[in-house]
């Protein structure tokens, strides 16, 4: 991916090749500015790469988008303040090209809210929700579309540590229950190890994959998992690579 600023070309992503297995949980980890969010936008069809392509099964990415295969959860919940949790969760279905009645859209939205544990909050407005609850509504909004793939761009980054841990546990349960493919952008090494089957570590200037680390830890994982020697060993591997990437990025800048 190349951007042009003031007549000068800047290479943001270079020679990047990832294969993500169906039903897998993959995290993108790396220093700020390495292109994680840009890569996620390209994978989700929100931005076209300068060269190269994205394939989702037999489809190109835009065909996959039109077929409703992709759901996106962003850093902020971005709920409509005048709509209830239920109406926010149903909003994307009602906007989609699917011929879905309002009754069916709300049924699917309610089902998604139940999955994320917010069935009892369906009639609450966004200002009545905590940060974690609002982010769960945004996850329900994506789940209600029933996509095959969830792209998540640091969805828990603004939450406090306790709520973030709770959301990670919830997300793991959702992933195991639904069997969806998840691609998760994070700045947190421990979060990446806790959630992932594979962590792709990115370097900067330009953005590229410097390490693809499989995480072979038993599931389901819980708070005690992070205290094991195996968990800490994975953290050490990723932290060492991250430090190398940060130093290399400074040299290349």
TrEMBL record:
SMART domains: AAA (SM00382). It holds the Pfam family ABC_tran. Signal peptide: none annotated. The keyword tRNA-binding does not apply. Residues 3-229 form the ABC transporter domain. GO terms for molecular function: ATP binding; ATP hydrolysis activity. Keywords: ATP-binding, Nucleotide-binding, Transport. This is ABC transporter ATP-binding protein. The lineage of its organism: Bacteria, Bacillati, Actinomycetota, Actinomycetes, Micrococcales.
